[in-house]
Amino acid sequence: MGERNGMALALRIQKPNETWALRLGLLLSALLGAAALSQFQAQITAEGLIETSTNFRAAFYGGAVLVLGLAFMALLAWTRLAPRLLAVLGDGQGLLGWLGWFGLVVFVVLLAAFPFIVLGFYGRFLTAAFSRLFIFWTFAVLGAVFLAAWRKTSWLSNLPVALLALASVYLAATFFNQARDFPFSLEWSEVSRYYQASFYFSQQVYGVSLPLPITHPSRYLLQSLPFLISSSPLWLHRLWQALLWVGMPLLTAWILARRLRLQPNALRGLFVAWTFLFLMQGAVFYHLLPCVFLVLLGFDKEKPWRSFLFVALASVWAGISRINWVPLPGALAALLYLLEARPTRGETALSVTNLWQPALFAIGGSLVALGAYGLYILNSGNPDPSQFSSPFTAALLWERLWPNVAFPLGILPGILLVSAPLFVAAWLRLRQQGASLGPWRSLGVAALLLIFFAGGLVVSVKIGGGTNLHNMDAYLVLLLVAASALAFGTYAPAQNRKPLVPLKVSAGLLVALLAIPVCFAVLSGGPLDLPEREVTAEILAQIQAAADEVLADGGEVLFISQRHLLTFRLVDQVPLVPEYEKLFLMEMAISHNDAYLSGFAKDIDEQRFDLIVTDPLFNNILTVSQDPLAPENNAWVRNVGRPLLCAYEAVVTFDNPPIQLLTPRYGDKCNQ
Known about the structure:
With 672 residues, the chain is mostly helical.
């Protein structure tokens, strides 16, 4: 992997002042507890539970006593009694020393208990931010105490371990919680993903050959692997996707830690957990991460052609992933070269001998990716190549850069918040004597980050986006790699040939590095609101009966939504109509593909289908003040909802899951 700094770790965490840690910790606990209690009271009062349920009244009053106790201790911590309070707490921790290895057992139980509570029945009372954060903080402190009892160390030194472990386990649990045999969609687009993944095995699944996916081909290629097992059930596909969501970031984090040569193994494990959480702040989708770990695995500045082979492999994958990721593998390789290749004596970073490699990676990789994208389009079997152009024709909604109801942080403040601790760590390193990259290499690294930052902002404000940071993914990856290499000293300073002085990380910076990705993780996910099995079985039976009746009369059935019911034969003996699936129909609606939408409107106006299964339809044009996703709603209403409601009428509507059955409306037909 080329020349490296000889130090296994050029990083040192400054030990925080225990008195101030106690004061701030108790103050945070009291404030969080008070805010959580207020949110909990509001919810159980609104639902009438504080009056009708003894358990909820007891929980509220018990919480009030706890918060008052924390507030009293916080006040004591700011008086002369702080040393005595610290000593008493220390004695209490010492008494737990007899637990030994049982402290580890309790810690593991806490790791399992937190997601069990939040994702279970009582999780609906922990959807408010402060309520969930307070419970998480309580579990983390308890976990740190029991870890300390096992390791015979202070609870404060174990708190980062507890925070990272608890947040990582919870985040993983949010994905595995969806690996269920529930027959309908768990969220708006969930089951559409499995349907599009089936295109790679369409002959086996449907008995007909379908064109390959137009959007996110690499994602659906990964998701298609369970179709190798004949008649694989829906729960297996959900489990596989959960493994991809968790496994791909962990694999990438481990490869990055290996490249950074982090030692000892405990540090490597903590870094892997932190990187997992950092990547999931976007989130960086799992099908994009091969573009990253292939380059991290194979790049070596001393072996340019070997490096380019890995860049080319990653670029082929990028070409069938997302169009804005086309330049990422080459840019990542160029970044690694700028970080690891020190200009030879008498030359600058602008010398031809130092420029040809990053130019080869950046330009050559992009050309390979574009070539792969073009070849995929030509060989995908799709008759209308214009459908691949939807990323270029969608509207840009610049107001989504700022805080809004759909994403309270806003894209711009959110990405700046996520980036700030890493920039501070990088700045602290580069300001050390002899640690500079030099002006031209620094400019090159900054230019790469700025280009992908600006590109991510543009992609983020496209209609259909702007509700999280996932379109800032390429920038987040480059920032992660650059900041990690600088922080741990695994790069080549411009002049210094000696080992770098360990970077001092203050308690404040450590808190920021931990708190931001941990909060993103803890505030994600929640309990699933699923109907009873008897209810879902009855809904399936009604859909099957309606389809059977239409087919018996020689009619045609269109599944706009819930099309996976055909994929997994949950509704049987219904021929597949490939056109007009919900997720792709929405893609065409927001990208203004008039040719596709005209064909849809014509088929609907002519009442081609005798039964349509869809999400419940509405005819409301909204403003952003009414719904932050009003542009998406309005595109759907104008291009899909109104044509359907004009020519069809609802005969059955289910609330949970939200499904509507439509049949042709007889009488006056619409003029589309």
